[in-house]
Amino acid sequence: MPSTIESASIVEQGGPKRRLVWISDSPRIPHIGQAIVSRNMLDSLSKNWDVFVLGFGDANLKTPVGVPYPIQHIHRNDLHDAKKVIGHLLAAKAEIVVFSHDIWLWPTIAEVKAALPNVKFVGWVTIDGIPLFPGWRGLFYAYDLLISPTKWGQNEILNRWLDLDVSHIPYAIDHTIFHTPKQGKAEFKRLVQAASQTDSSSRRMDVEGKFVGMYVGANQNRKNLGAIYAGWKQFAKDRDDVEFFLLTHSAMLDMPHVGDYALSEFMDAEHLTIIPTEVPLDWLAKFMCISDVLLHPSSGEGFGLTTLEAMACGTVPLVCGYSGQTDFCTPETSYYLPWEPHIGPYNVVRAMAVHRGVAETLGTAHMEWHLGTIEAKRQRGIAMAAKYNWAMSAAMMNEKLTDLLLNKEERLVVRHIL
Length: 418
Hints:
Layout: H1 4-13, E1 18-25, H2 33-45, E2 49-56, E3 71-73, H3 82-91, E4 96-101, H4 109-115, E5 120-125, H5 137-141, E6 145-148, H6 151-160, E7 166-168, H7 185-195, E8 211-217, H8 225-236, E9 242-248, E10 272-274, H9 281-289, E11 293-295, H10 305-312, E12 316-320, E13 335-337, E14 339-343, E15 349-353, H11 355-371, H12 374-385, H13 390-406
Parallel strand pairs: 1-2, 1-4, 2-3, 4-5, 5-6, 6-7, 8-9, 8-11, 9-10, 11-12, 12-13
Antiparallel strand pairs: 14-15
Helix pairs in contact: 1-13, 2-13, 3-4, 8-11, 10-12
């Protein structure tokens, strides 16, 4: 039996590429985190594998991203129909299947696996809180291999079910877009002002010499929106040297009420700039680069792409010291916010920020910004973010997939511990 390194070379150098079927949010979707993850991973894996994607959510895309591999649009509900999924995988001639990222959304996985005994199944699983729902146990066992993008997630799975095979392959970010600029706030001022519009008073934004906070409405983070809003208002009261950027899904510059997340309350906040929802990623990076802190508490982030992107841009996150983002958001790179436990669906414990804690922590960051001592956190964050790149992640994934596909021996698995 070849070693892992030898196995990897077999796929890269010998014979036709093996068929990899990838199931996820469609890589053609521009701004959704899991689409970005899949797109970057598959860009590298397609060099070694014959990639075919079963993708969710791109049926009505106005501006799809071009990709070099075939994508078949499916609905998430299709995963509830075992015969339909088996048909998709047989038609795709699957040899190995990767499901990213909410693997409990595939309730028929055990039935599909039983019908396709020669296909290997991998779950790249993010978890957003503890404990894992006991009802997921049977689904987890159906996969030949589980992969977590964080050490935190890997440990949470193993702490409950020690007999599972769980590896760690992190997500990463695009450092060609998200990186520390040579220019400072003054250099970006004209560009940002030209591309942004502010609140109803049409006040022109001026960030030079100001402490700038930024909120990005990521999926997990929007659940803390009330605390963020109340905390910012309390902090910003009677301060003239602060500015707040707000970017969230469904937000539009000319709407009195902002989208599905009831953000109209933000409109009465002072020192507020609304960023258009569909701002390109390079412009999102520009806003991050001129922000001093990122307000991103997260109720239970499985990884935290936005947080890591901001760190790469030299922006210091304010987060709850909880869940997957703690792999890189440490007290040395971030400000930890006070939080209270919240019991969500499936009895999962998540973190809810406390608005007074948000205000107090912003006050600490603002003081350290004035003193210049925030620079140490900024530099450590930049160095931490530099460790996460897609080439490394894809190489790790390629090695694991190759080893799993070529290893025909049955693994010794402990099902019960006495």
